[in-house]
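User: My advisor asked me to double-check a structure prediction for Class I SAM-dependent methyltransferase before group meeting. I don't want to rely on an old file, so could you generate it fresh from this sequence?
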Amino acid sequence: MFSPEGPSLRELAVQALSSVERGYDLLAPKFDHTPYRTPESVLDAVAAALAPLGPFGAGLDLCCGTGAGVDVLARVCRDSVTGLDFSAGMLAVARERTRPPGPAVSWVRADARALPFGPAFDLTVSFGAFGHFLPRELPGLFAQVYSVLRPGGCFAFPVVAPPRPGSAGYWALLGFDAAMRVRNALWRPPFVMYYRTFRLGHVGRELARAGFRVELHALPGFGRRPDGSPRVRLVVARRPARALSGGDGLRPPPAG
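Assistant: Sure, here is a fresh prediction for Class I SAM-dependent methyltransferase from the sequence you gave:
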């Protein structure tokens, strides 16, 4: 799973017994050499899907880590890009990365549950961070994102279809989540990272409740499951230009 430049088993164990913030501070120098970093294929597919939905002015990468999502925003935003994370170690690595010319990039250390912005962004993205939020935290998180988007702005993130029940992937994720629950029951501080709690149906309802209009876009490069559903979708939640009278839930993208 890890390249020779990645963390050792001992380093991973120390991280796992730390808080989420401290754990990522420790992992940051080697994070890009782990399978936890979002693959380039996903980043490229999201950038391609977002391009025709623009143009976008200012972009925010929520829980940016070492900045992979910032590179996506730089391709589709004209004015400025901001990366936000609560790990000082991850932000330090992000700042050191060399990036091609593009919009101005700034970095902010803050908690995604208490964003230090007004409605300043046209596009917010997030990659691979939602396992760090418990289901009960999603309403507050989505309300925060809604508050920092300008009217008509978008909140976009990829979602991978869950593995088929009974498959090796299903049991691997179930085992990981079970081990994490045991760890958090026995050890403090907790390390919140669960793979099976971010369910698309629940997420869509909470986004709609926060005021978003939600569309699902298939990312075709990843194919379809045996039942015909996409293996990877892009969730696009748009803050309406005018307030809605009620939630609209999940819907496919408009024709054309």
